[in-house]
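Narrative of accomplishments. A recurring question from our advisory board has been how the design workflow behaves on a single, concrete structure rather than in aggregate. To address it, we present the structure tokens for one chain from the evaluation set, followed by the sequence designed for it. No filtering or post-editing was applied between the two.
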């Protein structure tokens, strides 16, 4: 249950935990979910009378940690109080280090709460939907329940709390999503950019403190007044930014023989501060820097850095302006990562140890699901570092260990982000069991969030993968979940959220029979998916692992201020993903970042940079089911494409504003044999040549090519729009290619054409194997990128 926020001197308060048994089933909308860490979770629809009845808490009081009084903020506090008194929400905005968080925390503790109480939350790297669930759990005793997006405002109706949200670097639309979740609450947000305008509320800029407040701050930190002229000069150089003034005082305080730094150096104080730190403090700071913008509990900081009293040590770092205190623990302060990257002599943390530690911790039954969700950003960073260092196996280990707890936490945003990282990592590592598991869990998540199209694709693909592995329990779980795939909007009663790309769906009053909903043009249910590879298809071995990589990964450059539209993919904007060469010290570096020791190199099959699968299609009974990414950010359009054939599934991604698209973590495409492709056991014919005949794909499934003469071969399929098409491959010798449109699928149905995708098949010397490559042949505008142009192989059916 939610902590009351009373001060008890510990760091365990102010967290929102799920009531009830964390290892038992959880409920999302109309769905009951039993989380299974081995064979994939199972889903059932609640019967009448089983729906939970959340109880509103008698007292809503989730306060931030107590801290000192921020100096020079009387006018800002008065502005916040006036807006709340007028019944308006407020957004505090300003640059990093200006004091927004300190002001917000103080306001949450001191201003008249009014109404039903106060809730304080940190939104850093959190999706709006997850934050809405935080608010719901803070106001209700939930018993492990996530209401649907349509039901949540009804349950929150009449809750007149004041909700303070720090690090709310959201777009205006995302802010409205949070506010709509609690329609009668008032909000005070803090973020870097001004986005709250008009009827949504007031925006209030937080600027540097006054000269008198700066003098008081320096006097407090130094234990006495400084030279008035120097104080004024420092205040002017720092533009009144409290963080910079705090660091200036820290440099002088750590060296009694030194005076305040020169005003010209006020923005270059990090290296002098590093020089004055003792070894345990520097080691702990280095650990925080390794995790970039993620927050860590002092328990983990102490265990990994070898610091006996990590809480006190980190509090000291925060007092120097090097770390930031959060509700969970600590994260590195603004600008510190880039400075640490430049420092020589820092011994890298062993990546294998970091991943092993957090994987073991997340997998323990006694670890609360809410704590794993709170450390989701740290787990994301670890998975990124592992991938960049050529250790996809470590990324798989971390995500696989954390996934069950993230599902139980009912934070579907962070759960989806981690699953998005785990799937391509499993493919790179050649871990078929993990690939099946991640595909299955993504399908279950898509059911719970109402994404009809994606759920059908993923669960069908998961069933194929489980059966190929001989895991009947996993295959049964996937087939069972398929019958609960949300119907098309308006197709069934009781499902107002069905088809929604995000937010828990309301479920189905009458779930469709026979598996996935029909998405084709025939108007008939295709029935359950049949695996064409079962019994008749020759197994195609996975690609041979690449030679052991000598490259690793390290902390990339500080990504800088978070963009207002927070990415949901695993990487920060502009952070390179590919590993850089090993540095002279033997530690791998990435973008000149701090090194992280990747441990012993491990060979694995790898994909080319930027070529991870994002979309997928499965042909079932002549009707395809096409999917889009589960990691759709507000600022991104995610397009899934069927490029002429079901074996040529591609995805493209474009930025709405035309800027460079962020990385998104994908879903692999898969195929099955379509009845329209011909009898899979044809009458004996002469030995086929060229492409003629049935071929089995290493991605699963098969397809038949029919010779059309003059170096041309055709194959019939249905595209993502449900239309029957005939794809024509042409060429000569051993190489044939075809092109097809790439559609925008961000809405779950066919949108505009974003370009053309070319699929090229090259037959090997033996004539029975072929390699397939995919690339964007043309695009309608800049910013359209192919994320599923991954090579795979075909094997001719005997």
């Amino acid at each position: 249950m939610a902590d009351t926020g009373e001060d008890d001197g510990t760091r365990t308060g102010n967290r929102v935990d799920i009531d009830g048994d964390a290892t038992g089933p959880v409920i999302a909308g109309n769905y009951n979910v039993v989380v299974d860490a081995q064979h994939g979770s199972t889903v059932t629809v609640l019967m009448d009378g089983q729906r939970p009845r959340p109880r509103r808490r008698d007292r809503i009081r989730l306060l931030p940690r107590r801290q000192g009084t921020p100096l020079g903020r009387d006018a800002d506090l008065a502005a916040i109080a006036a807006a709340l008194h007028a019944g308006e929400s407020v957004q505090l905005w300003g640059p990093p280090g200006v004091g927004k968080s300190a002001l917000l925390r103080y306001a949450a503790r001191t201003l008249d709460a009014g109404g039903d109480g106060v809730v304080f939350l940190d939104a850093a790297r959190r999706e709006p939907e997850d934050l809405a669930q935080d608010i719901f759990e803070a106001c209700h005793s939930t018993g492990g329940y996530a209401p649907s997006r349509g039901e949540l405002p009804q349950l929150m109706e009449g809750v007149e709390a004041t909700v303070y949200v720090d690090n709310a670097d959201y777009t205006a639309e995302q802010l409205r999503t949070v506010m709509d979740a609690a329609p009668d609450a008032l909000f005070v947000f803090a973020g870097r950019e001004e986005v709250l305008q008009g009827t949504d509320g007031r925006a209030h800029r937080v600027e540097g403190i006054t000269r008198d407040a700066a003098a008081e701050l320096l006097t407090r930190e130094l234990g006495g007044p400084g030279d008035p002229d120097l104080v004024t000069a420092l205040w002017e150089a720092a533009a009144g930014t409290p963080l910079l003034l705090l660091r200036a005082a820290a440099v002088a305080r750590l060296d009694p023989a030194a005076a305040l730094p020169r005003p010209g150096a006020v923005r270059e104080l990090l290296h002098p501060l590093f020089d004055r730190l003792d070894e345990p403090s520097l080691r702990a700071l280095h650990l925080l820097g390794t995790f970039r913008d993620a927050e860590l509990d002092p328990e983990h900081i102490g265990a990994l850095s070898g610091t006996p009293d990590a809480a006190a040590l980190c509090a000291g770092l925060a007092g120097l302006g090097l770390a930031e205190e959060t509700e969970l623990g600590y994260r590195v302060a603004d600008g510190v990562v880039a400075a640490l990257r430049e420092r020589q002599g820092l011994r890298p943390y062993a990546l294998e140890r970091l991943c092993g530690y957090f994987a073991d911790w997340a997998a323990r039954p006694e670890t609360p699901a809410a704590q794993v969700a709170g450390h989701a950003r740290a787990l994301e960073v670890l998975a990124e570092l592992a991938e960049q260092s050529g250790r996809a196996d470590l990324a798989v280990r971390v995500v696989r260990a954390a996934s069950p707890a993230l599902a139980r936490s009912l934070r579907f945003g962070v759960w989806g982000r981690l699953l998005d990282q785990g799937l391509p990592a499993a493919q790179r590592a050649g871990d078929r069991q993990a690939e099946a598991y991640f595909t299955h869990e993504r399908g279950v998540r898509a059911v719970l969030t109402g994404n009809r199209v994606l759920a059908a694709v993923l669960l069908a693909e998961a069933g194929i993968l489980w059966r190929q592995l001989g895991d009947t329990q996993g295959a049964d779980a996937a087939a069972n979940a398929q019958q609960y795939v949300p119907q098309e909007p308006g197709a069934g009663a009781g499902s107002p959220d069905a088809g929604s790309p995000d937010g828990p769906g309301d479920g189905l009053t009458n779930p469709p029979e026979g598996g996935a909903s029909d998405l084709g043009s025939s108007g008939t249910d295709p029935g359950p998916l049949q695996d064409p590879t079962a019994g008749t298809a020759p197994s195609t071995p996975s690609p041979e692992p690449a030679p052991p990589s000598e490259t690793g990964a390290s902390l990339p450059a500080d990504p800088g201020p978070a963009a207002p539209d927070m990415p949901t993919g695993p990487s920060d904007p502009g952070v390179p993903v590919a590993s850089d060469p090993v540095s002279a010290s033997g530690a791998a570096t990435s973008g000149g970042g701090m090194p992280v020791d990747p441990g012993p190199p491990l060979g694995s099959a790898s994909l080319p940079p930027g070529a991870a699968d994002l979309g997928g299609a499965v042909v079932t009974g002549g009707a395809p089911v096409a999917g889009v990414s589960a990691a759709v950010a507000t600022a991104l359009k995610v397009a899934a494409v069927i490029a002429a054939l079901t074996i040529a599934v591609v995805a493209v991604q474009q930025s709405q504003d035309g800027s460079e698209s962020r990385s998104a973590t994908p879903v692999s495409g898969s195929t099955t044999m379509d009845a329209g492709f011909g009898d899979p056991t044809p009458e004996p014919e002469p030995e086929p040549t060229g492409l003629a005949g049935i071929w089995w794909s290493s991605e699963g499934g098969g397809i038949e090519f029919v010779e059309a003469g003059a170096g041309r071969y055709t194959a019939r399929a249905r595209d993502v729009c449900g239309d029957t098409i005939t794809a024509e491959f042409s060429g000569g010798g051993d190489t044939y290619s075809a092109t097809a449109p790439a559609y925008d699928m961000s809405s779950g149905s066919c949108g505009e054409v974003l370009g053309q995708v070319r699929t090229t098949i090259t037959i090997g010397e033996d004539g029975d194997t072929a390699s397939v490559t995919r690339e964007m042949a043309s695009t309608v505008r800049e910013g359209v990128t192919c994320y599923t142009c991954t090579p795979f192989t075909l094997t001719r059916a005997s």
